[in-house]
Amino acid sequence: MCASSGLKAGCVAGVIINRTQKEIPDHATLKETEARSIKVVVEAARKMLK
């Protein structure tokens, strides 16, 4: 849809649990996943803006 309008789009998703094993992440894991996701988004935005 974006490409038909001449735009670029992307999606970043961080996986933090394994539902089949009922894994519950701790606060540090949540923060690390969030920080990594932000780094990916920032780098992707830099590349898309070139």
Describe the structure.
The chain has 50 residues and is mainly alpha-helical. The chain has one domain. The protein has one helix spanning 27-48. It is elongated, with a radius of gyration of 15 Å.
Give a quick set of tags describing it:
mainly alpha, Nucleoside_phosphorylase_sf, 0% strand, 1 helix, catalytic activity, Uridine phosphorylase
Largest sheet: none
Rounded Rg: 15 Å
What general form does the structure show?
elongated
Roughly what fraction of the amino acids lie in strands? under 5%
Note the total helix count: 1
The secondary-structure class comes to mainly alpha
What is the ordering of alpha helices and beta strands?
H
Spans of at least 5 consecutive residues with low confidence: none
Query: What number of structural domains do the residues give?
Result: 1
User: How far do the termini sit from each other?
Assistant: 21 Å
Portion of residues in helices?
Answer: 40-55%
Task: Give a concise summary.
This protein is mainly alpha-helical and about 50 residues long. The chain is about 45% helix and about 0% strand. InterPro entries: Nucleoside_phosphorylase_sf (IPR035994).
